[in-house]
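Fold it.
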Amino acid sequence: MLNEADTANKRSRWEEVTGFFWSISGRTLKKEEKEDQEEPSEDFKKKVCAFWEWTIEKQELIKVKLGEEYNSFLSRMAELTIWLDKINETTEKWLMLSAPFIEIDYRSSFFIEYLTKFDDEESVKRIGKIFIKVLETATPTFKKEDIQLLVERLYKVGEKDAGIKADADNICNTYGRRGVHFLKDLFYKNQK
């Protein structure tokens, strides 16, 4: 179905498939909103991740098929972050590919919320790089508390790793240079 979706009237299929996978996830991390929903199976999660991996492997083909709409597709793919259990070397590459485009169709709030679910050290170390990639093209401010939580985690892991602290400082400084100061107190609190 997707291999044949290379004409203007069929290109939307790519985003529709991604939207379908996202819709099955439950879309939110808030437990009170998910109580009466059945959790998708591990098998389904594996299928979603296999699809995501396939889109990375076939990146050049998909670019040709989607043309100018490829960046919008990558933005939509970022929503599949909700399906990940952690961010490892492989999934970091997937997220880095989508990160610069998360503001297309205002999807950044979901992406940032989904990043907050990762609190293991390996994932947190990678979140700094991913967020810096986001800041190359956007300055998300919705859900400031989620952004602050991510930066706090970076500073905590950064106590043992100067590179991670540098990522947190970079994020804070980028916001500050752009006239957005909700990370200012967090930045000063973590300077020695």
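Residues 12-189 form one domain.
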